[in-house]
Amino acid sequence: MMKTLQVALGDRSYPIHIGENLLSESDLFTAHIRGKEVLIVTNETVAPLYLDTVKTALNDYRLESVILPDGEQYKTLDIMQLIFDRLLEARLSRQVTIIALGGGVIGDMAGFAAACYQRGVPFIQVPTTLLSQVDSSVGGKTAVNHPLGKNMIGAFYQPQCVLADTDTLKTLDDRQFSSGLAEVIKYGLINDAEFFDWLEQNMSLLVSRDPAALAQAIARSCQDKATIVADDEREQGVRALLNLGHTFGHAIETGSGYGNCLHGEAIAIGMVMAADLSQRMGWLSTEKVTRISNIMIAANLPVTVPDKLSSADFMNLMAVDKKVQDGLIRLVLLKDIGQAIISDNYDGDALAETLAKFTAEN
Amino acid sequence: MMKTLQVALGDRSYPIHIGENLLSESDLFTAHIRGKEVLIVTNETVAPLYLDTVKTALNDYRLESVILPDGEQYKTLDIMQLIFDRLLEARLSRQVTIIALGGGVIGDMAGFAAACYQRGVPFIQVPTTLLSQVDSSVGGKTAVNHPLGKNMIGAFYQPQCVLADTDTLKTLDDRQFSSGLAEVIKYGLINDAEFFDWLEQNMSLLVSRDPAALAQAIARSCQDKATIVADDEREQGVRALLNLGHTFGHAIETGSGYGNCLHGEAIAIGMVMAADLSQRMGWLSTEKVTRISNIMIAANLPVTVPDKLSSADFMNLMAVDKKVQDGLIRLVLLKDIGQAIISDNYDGDALAETLAKFTAEN
Question: Boundaries of each 3-dehydroquinate synthase N-terminal domain copy (chains A, B) (predicted)?
Fold first, then answer.
C-alpha cells in the first residue's frame, strides 16, 4: 500500500510516495526523469545495500554513480566537489537527473549539487533513513556545512519527487532510527497535539519498527511538514517553526564535533531545553515538560547535554546560527504541546538558567 | 548624467544605473540594502583603486571586506570558500548584503556566494570593467569554473541593483578594455543591426574611451541584454543567443589554459568562427564575414585561434560545453548581422572545415 502526498509549491510542486519496495518500481522514477542521463549519488554504507536495486530499476538510462564517504563530517564543499568531478568526467549534460540515494547528508549534498550543476538540473530524493524520510527530503532545503556553522552554504531547491521506501528502515542502526523519531516527535510538538498523543500511545510499536505504525508516522510527519513548507517555502515566517530544538541542537552538534552527536539526538536535547525555557517563561506546565522528556526517553533519545559544553560555549555557538536577526537570538519555543512560536521576546535570565541547568555537570 | 534601465523580472526586477562617479553616491547603495551588515568582495587589483571610495559611501553600515586574488584562474570553489570564511568569521547574518566590486570574475563569485550563503542573501553588482558592465552584471548568471569546464557550477541569482560607474573604465588595461568591446559587438550581431552599424562608425571613438560614446554603448548593450533576459531568465530558449561565439570561445579559453586568453578575446575569435561556419552554410555573405572580422580588428581583438589547439581539441572541449542536448552540439550561428539563431541543424562537414581553417597552422 503506497501512500502519496503532494507538496503544493506552484510549478515546483512534487509528490512524496511512501511505502514498501518502492526502490524497484521503475515507473516511479521514470515518471520524473526527462533526459537519458542519470547520476546516482550515494554513500559507502548505502551503496552495498540498495545501489544495485536502483540501477536495475533504471537500466534503460545512461547510468553513472558516485559513492561518497558516510557521515555528517563529510557534508562539506570539498566532498561535494566529488559529485561535480563525476558529473564532468562523465560529461553529463544539463539534461541529467541526479538521484540522491541515502540519508539526509546525501540528500543535502546531492540536492545542492543538483541546484548548482550548470545552474540547476533536476533531482529525485530517495531517502533511506527515518530522519531523511520525515524531514530533509521534504521542503527543498539543501546545504553543506562550514567549519563555523551547520548548513551555512546551500540553496532552496525542490526535487522532482521523493520516494520513501520503508523497507530501507530495516537496515538502520538503532541510534539512526531513534534520531529520526526525534523529528517525528517535533511535528507533534510544533502544531499537531493529536499526533503527539498518538505518538505517546504508539512509541513502543514504533521503536519495534512495526511497518504499519511507521508508515502512518512518516506520512503524518511529511504531511505536517509539507503544509508548513507550502505556506512559506523560503523561510520568511512560519517555516522557522520547523527549527524547534535546532538552535540549541546545532550548538550541541557543532560544539561536540560533527559526527559525535547525531542530528536527531542533538535536536531531541534541544527540544527538551526549549521546553525547559518555555516552562521558565510560564508557558508550559511541569507535567508537559515531563511528557516531552519522557517521550524522548521512550524513543531511546538523549535528554542531557553531552561532552563538556559550557553556557558560554552555547552562547558563542548560537550567535552564528542562522536564526539571528541583527544580533538578537530568536528561538522557537512552546506555548503548549502542539503550539510552537518564534520568539525574541523571552527572558534572557531564563535562557541563562536553562543553559546553566543543562550544562551544570559539564 | 546617469542613465537608468530596468531589468523586468517580476519580483526579481532590478535597476541598472550607468554614469560617472556612481561609487561615491551613498544613496544608490542604501536604497538597496535592507540590514545593517555589508560584505564587500573585491580583488587585489581593484581594492587599491576603489575599495576606500565604496567604504566611505557606506560608512553607516557594519562593513567587512574580503580581497581575492585577481584572475579567471581563481574563479573556483576553493577561492569562493574565502568569501564564506569571511562571512562566518565575521558572524554576518542572513541579513547581510554582499557587494561585488570588480570585474566579471568577482561578480560571478560574489553573486554565487550570495546565492548560497544561508541559502541566499541580497547582493549588489558594482562592475568595474567594460566586460562586466555590459555582460556579466546583467542577467543573474553566477558561477565558478571547474577544471573540466567553465561556469559549470553556479546559480541563476539576481542582484538588487547594478551600479556601472564609467569612471572605473579609465584604469582598465587595453586588453581588458578590448575584451569588453567583444561583448558589445556581440549584441549588435545577435539582434541589433542598427547598433552594429553604429559601432562600425564609432569604434575609433570607443577605442579612445570617449566617455559619451562609452555611456551610449554600455546602455544600449545592457538594454539589449536585459530584453533578452527578461524574455527567458533561465535560458530555456532565446537567452541561449547570448552564447554567440561562446561554444568556440569556451573551448579556446579552456584549451589555452584559464587566464592566457581573456574571455572577450576568446569569444571574439568564437564569433569570427561562427560567422565563418554561417558563411559555409550559405547564410552570410563573404562581405559580411569580412565586416565582422574587421570590426574585431578595429577593436584590437584577435581573430585567429591562439596556441596549439587542434580540431580534435575543439571537438573534445566543445562536447562538455553546456549547450549540448543529449549529445548533439548546438551552436549559435548567424543568418545575418543582427539575426542570430540557435541551431543543431548545420552541416557537420562545414563545422569540420571551419575548425580545420582556424587550426591549420596549429
Answer: 66-178
* Helical axes A174-191 vs A286-298, angle rounded to 10°: 150
* Residues A279-308: tens digit of each pLDDT: 999 999 999 999 999 999 999 999 999 877
Residue A327 has pLDDT above 70, yes or no: no
Nearest in space to A186 (alpha carbons), one of A140, A232, A148, A222? A222
Write out the residues of chain A at the interface with chain B, using a CB-CB cutoff of 8 A: 35-37, 77, 81, 84-85, 87-89, 91, 93-95, 115-120, 141, 143, 146-149, 152-156, 234-235, 319-320, 322, 324-327
The CATH H-level (homologous superfamily) assignment of domain B174-358 is Dehydroquinate synthase-like - alpha domain (1.20.1090.10)
Contact A119 B154 (CB under 8 A): yes
Q: Are B292 and B189 in contact (CB under 8 A)?
A: yes
CA distance A152 to chain B (A): 5
Structure confidence at residue A320 (pLDDT): 56
Pairing of β A123-127 and β A37-43:
unpaired
Provide the CATH topology of domain A183-358: Dehydroquinate synthase-like, alpha domain (1.20.1090)
Give the pLDDT mean for A134-147: 90
pLDDT tens per residue, range B170-218:
999 999 999 999 999 999 999 999 999 999 999 999 999 988 899 899 9
Confirm if B241 and B228 have CB atoms less than 8 A apart.
Answer: yes
- A227 in a labelled binding site: no
Domain with CATH 3.40.50.1970 in chain B: 3-171
Give me the interface pTM, i.e. the ipTM. 0.85
Q: What residues of A are labeled active site?
A: 119, 141, 183, 225, 235, 239, 243, 246, 250, 263
According to CATH, where is 1.20.1090.10 located in chain B?
174-358
Cell (9 digits) for A133: 524520510
Every domain of chain A with CATH number 1.20.1090.10 lies at 183-358
Residue with cell 539582434: B191
Asked whether the beta carbons of A340 and A287 are under 8 A apart, the reply is: no
Asked if B120 lies within 8 A of A81 by C-beta distance, the reply is no
Catalytic residue among B32, B186, B263, B323: B263
Write down the pLDDT at residue A315: 87
Q: For residue B193, which amino acid is it?
A: A
